[in-house]
Design goal:
Chain lengths: ~300, ~300
């Protein structure tokens, strides 16, 4: 196959686009896709300071790399989730990436926030699925870091596969409020929030992997050990099969949803503006934000165990 | 496992309902489900004469059997599609079923309507997928038969798997007009139409198969030979995997859609009432109905082949 742009020998074949690219043209194509998405959805202004949430995986490091290449002012944010060796290795990848490019990086860890706040501990103490606990905590720390640091935008590396899987899950259960909020740009609903954007939401996992590989980005390849058996992976598998039978399915599913369907769910999601969490001061719909509720649950559990003489 | 109702030994286990049934209780459960669906959705009035579209497969014969058991006045309608031996065998099954129960049966065949109207011929002549050609023709003949015969309702055997697959396809492409029309009861939009209902739309393929087996219904087991590779089967396979990971997925997907989501798509589907087809007089949105357009295409093609000396 030949490169669709320059007719050199193609290195990548994108079935969903019925296109092939050589290495330089693929990198150009990928950057252009991100650039266009940012412009079309008005994700980032020219003077915005962007906080990029980086996990050490291909998506978030590819995103950071592209944003730097496009000339945006960026700072990385790494959150140590305390998932054993997996977290150690992903932290290393992020540090190496930032150091090699002299990029500013902020690092927080759940463990330093309080005892028992590493993801596995919270999941065990609250009997939540690890992915649910992890999601709530990440959201809190990302929001808090973006606010404290006076950033304008928080960018995450969610790709097309992530968004399609999330959309499929929302559609299978017809969760109207979740459907209403599934969008590539989330404007702040409170002064302590910043805009949240997903510039890779139309690029597949395969496309970001190829980009990271071609750019020589050293990322953590293994999946999070908690992800095994996660519902999200079942959705991804189903979508992979649908995509194989009809290339372009995922992209059309997500793109058409965002473009023409999502607004029909807006009324369902209309709710009052959030107040502020009594414990941490971040926006919250109840007395406590969902992170502080989690923390309370963990503390309560620890106190009970201590009283029963089970902990040191 | 024990029967959820009577504690006898269970013969069937329904994971989606987390229930098991012995044979008598299963038959009772199945009939009740159909009865409740008919009542909840106001599908059939007590005095209605129901035309039941029967293919010879498990779903439509199970439906006919249940409707007769519930005391409805029914007539079967079999449409010979001209799909070789498959059609011959399915015709036999329907005749045997009706004769054994002394039920009135009307039989039409596409071949008797005109030369080249068997499904494989129409598909070849119009270069349509066989399932698309077949769907358009079935719809026409069912509507026409229901109208001519002064029936009140047309009932089809679409089951939960059919409806979930159709919904998944409509959602993956976000076809708003198709989404708006996907409902278990379709009220007539023209005096020549009758109400169309799907009393089995919340019962799975497995459930109708078990019912047919327990009732000793002899049905055609093999799939239509044209179905191989059909997109519908890809959707069914994806849904089977999602169901296996989380039993009840299909039912929640379809039920919640019909109950709370479908109406949001109504405005998209609002279109003028149909006029009448110039050729056959049945309701049509254009000059010709979609069936007569197909027929014209076939005739045109045959005329060209004859002119070129290719046909006898």
């Amino acid at each position: 196959m030949k490169c669709t742009r320059c007719k050199a020998k193609a290195e990548v074949h994108l079935r969903a686009h019925n296109a092939g690219f050589c290495r330089p043209c693929y990198l150009e194509y990928f950057r252009r896709q991100v650039e266009r998405t940012i412009a079309r959805e008005r994700m980032i202004g020219a003077d915005d300071h962007v906080l990029v949430a980086v996990s050490g995986g291909k998506d978030s490091l590819a995103l950071w790399d592209v944003l730097v290449g496009l000339g945006y002012r960026t700072t990385g944010l790494y959150l140590g989730l305390g998932i054993g060796e997996y977290s150690d290795r992903s932290h290393e990848k992020v540090e190496t990436f930032a150091a090699a490019r002299s990029l500013p990086l902020e690092v927080r860890t759940l463990a330093e926030q309080g005892a028992g706040l590493a993801v596995p501990d919270v999941a065990a103490a609250t009997r939540r699925a690890p992915c649910a606990a992890c999601g709530a905590m990440k959201r809190h720390f990302f929001d808090a870091a973006a606010h404290e640091g006076r950033f304008d935008v928080l960018a995450t590396g969610h790709n097309l596969d992530d968004e399609a899987a999330r959309l499929l899950g929302n559609v299978l259960r017809w969760q109207r409020d979740h459907l209403a909020r599934q969008r590539p740009v989330l404007e702040p609903s409170h002064p302590k929030f910043v805009r949240k954007v997903k510039p890779l939401y139309l690029l597949s996992e395969y496309e970001t992997a190829v980009y990271a590989f071609m750019r020589g980005i050293d990322y953590i390849v293994e999946e999070c050990p908690n992800a095994e058996g996660a519902t999200q992976l079942v959705y991804k598998d189903a979508l992979d099969r649908l995509e194989a039978a009809s290339p372009g399915t995922k992209r059309a599913f997500v793109k058409e949803y965002v473009r023409t369907i999502r607004p029909v769910f807006d009324t369902a999601a209309a709710r009052d503006a959030p107040g502020e969490c009594e414990a941490c001061g971040m926006p919250a719909f109840g007395v406590l934000c969902s992170f502080c509720s989690l923390v309370r649950e963990v503390e309560h559990k620890r106190a009970r165990r201590a009283a029963a003489g089970l902990d040191a």
